[in-house]
What does this fold into?
Amino acid sequence: MTTERTYHHGDLRRAVLTAALDVIAAEGPSALSLRDLARRAGVSHAAPAHHFKDRAGLLTAIAAEGHALLAAALTEASDLRDLGVRYVRFALAHPAHFQVMFRPELLRADDPELVAARRRTRDLLRTAVAARAGGGAGADDSGTGFMAAWSLAHGFATLLLTHNLDGPLDGRDPEKVFRSLAGELFRPAGNSPAG
It folds into this structure.
């Protein structure tokens, strides 16, 4: 089988990751099995363990990759609202990554690659919140702005992915709706609508 030979030449890790993402997108992370992924890749049942050791190692690699992809998307943001839109866009484009990235019970929390990738995404969000507040990187020492911004983007993305907003959106563009919500919630002090 030619695909098996290709995988043995360095593509097995990517093939297993891709197959795992397909399974997660279709059935969720609980359906993941290294043995099944090996079968899908056309390799021995032990082959994926050479790259990931076990299921937690595979899910940790998916989460680290997801955070790296998210950080790359957030780096291009022009402001806090755009950062939130990019967060939502990422979740819609990478639903399998998104399902795993924020599930600590599935991951090796101390994995150096995951720790570094998480730190980068959090730092980007904290910096955007601090810039919005008009201060430096430590302007929001309480972390409430960070939590509010992250909660809004993460909650909106989660509700979209689980189709809970299908009715309320009523065909409207989710990105435009999110921009509007973010504008309302992060309106500068003294600029509230007349009421």
The longest helix spans residues 2-27. The chain has a mean pLDDT of 86.
